[in-house]
Amino acid sequence: MNAAVLTIGDELLQGFTVDTNSSWLGTILLTYNIRITKKITVGDKLNDIISETQNILDDKYDFLFVTGGLGPTHDDITKEAFRQLLDDEIIFDENYYLQLKQHFEKRSIKMPESNRSQAMLLKTADVIPNDNGTALGMHLLIKGTHTFIMPGVPGEMRSMVNKYIIPNYIKKTPVENFITIKTAGIMESHLAEKVNGLMEKYSHSFRFAFLPHYSGVSFRINKLDENENLLNVKDEFFKAMLPYAYGINDNTLEEILGLKLIEYKFTIATAESCTGGLIGKRLTDSAGSSEYFLGSVTAYSNQLKTSLLNVPNDIIQKFRAVSEEVALEMAKGVRAKTGADIGISTTGISGPSGGTKTKPVGLVYIGVVTPEKSMVKKYNFNYGRNIHREMTTTAALNITRLAINQA
Question: Nearest 5 degrees, angle CA 84-CA 17-CA 387?
């Protein structure tokens, strides 16, 4: 079965808001064998909404998912567009209007008069409840196309799909037709070299895609033949991608590292300079991180490197702050200061200025000290200040993961 997505809003076209609704819908619907084959974004113009919707309906899709334009302000015109398109009627839902008023009263807020519009619904539509907001969704069967009109707020839209649309209109059991292997520490081209033979072997029954980004390369396996065993094929690819493969689907590097730390009963602490605390932030993103994460020292200045981490001042003077020697002393220092089993450190030049010929912008040293070994890795991530920090953080987490695996 196929589907189209129509997202509505000037803010989407102008880049002020990122469209996460379409990507989320694509992932969720694929598990029900529904493929999005068209995605269109239009602004807050009545005629554009009408014409693009008509084009989609003429193409005979099984499903159309529309998001945006159901709010109480002047630019929320989705209902009016569908009223004109279908020559329908907008009716006032007195019961829902009373619910709206009670919703605001419970919060001790006077309901703005503009919110009255959210009790206005298309006469021929089935109502889709909104458990997380005030704008109701609507379902219409138009020329054989199940059309769902929902708010653009991601949390509200997702709740409608999961709680009402899938159970009431799709009524299928989800199937595992695709899986994603997550990797870190390897380039897309090198990863391809490791699995080219396997891709050729399974090319008739599976489709493959490399999804590179700054934090690593994801590898998507999509099953085409229902008789094939996706999990067995995933295992083959995962083994071929070791030691770079670390997880599947929604696994994060920090989550996998946390599980390793728990398995080995290790604690960890970080000493960060150029990453500014980002490693500690990512480690604590995982629930249960208090079992292994002791804390972080953001020693941006040389003074704090010496006073808090006991980095000898003569080492800083001789090798400078961004150096292998200082990175190692920082990792040792935070390990000793906190009593952690593992210490991680970062020191580098995120830019845009501060580089020299011998130490250019992007240079970074990452130190890792475990009960068994001490190491420092040197990289140059010259992709801009923010990306430099993200890449450095990912590299630090991945180096630590590999060091534990070798323990």
Answer: 155
User: Is the N-terminal amide bond of 174 cis, ω within 30° of 0?
Assistant: no
Q: What is the pLDDT of residue 114?
A: 79
CATH code at position 263: 3.90.950.20
Q: What is the domain count for the chain? A: 3
pLDDT in tens, 326-348: 999 999 999 999 999 999 999 99
Same domain assignment for residues 257 and 398: yes
Answer whether residue 172 shows pLDDT above 90.
Answer: no
Q: In terms of Cα–Cα distance, which of 244, 290, 299 is closest to 268? A: 290
Q: Residue 175: pLDDT above 80?
A: no
Q: What is the pLDDT of residue 166?
A: 96
